[in-house]
Amino acid sequence: MKKISLFVLCFLAFFLFAYAEETAGLITDLKGTVSIIRGTEKIKAEVGSEVLNNDKIKCEKESSADILMTNGDYLTVKENEEKTITLKIEPTRAKENKESSEFFSSDTRNTILANPVSLREGEEISSISPRSTTISKRPHFFWTVDPNAVSAAEFTVILTDSNGKELFRNEVKGFEFEFPKELPDLIPDKIYTWIVMTKDEEFASEETYFKILPEEKINEFSRVYGDLRKKYITSENTLNISYGSYLIEQKMYSDAFYYFNQLVKKTPESKYVHQMLAITHLKQKLFLPYNQEILILSKIK
Fold it and tell me: 97-301 domain in CATH 3.30.360.10?
């Protein structure tokens, strides 16, 4: 009986230790000075910081933190508050959050990024989004350049339909372009091609093909987004992180890039956000933007 009791106690101790180390959530938004207290360690929190089970979140004066839990719950730690984060052993996850929690673990993200395979090389201009399949009938266009080869900051973006008819040709400053307001929506279940080139036409991206999803699929994604928007109505960051992660799981990488790119504009020093952008590039085998994100990550402490 003593041997059995000892075995049970050892197993229970191991289980509790493993449970304590379990990822409980992710800090999705914060302001002011926020710390994660993990045992005797005090860690400065940032957007994307992983929160383990039984960590304490401490907010100083004029500070707050939003946390998205792996079970889909959402909580806020307020000014001058210290809260212990506890995850239920058998969480009941909301359906829309089941997949997105995979990326809450920093170990998972590091493992994915440690294995870049067969990325295309030799591009001076790389088209990022849209490509492959996309949800939006009015997609936002993104690209990047190799600064060692291209110094230009003015570009021409051209979109054609499957018959080769030119739908627009616009001159742009910078590295993104909103779909022209005066043009009608693109047609679901149709294929389009776009290219971006320097204004002097010295450098150009590859021709990039993308297809708008069928209407019923667009509606499915719209429902998920709508449900998440209602749930996280007070935190745009939480919405973008949750929906962006969900899109990666659904292999909608162009659309996921858009949401994480919105986040990086607000939190340019967040390691998590740059990791997620790198993952969208890795999944699409985009060598140039992937390497640019890895370089940024190497400079973030």
Answer: no
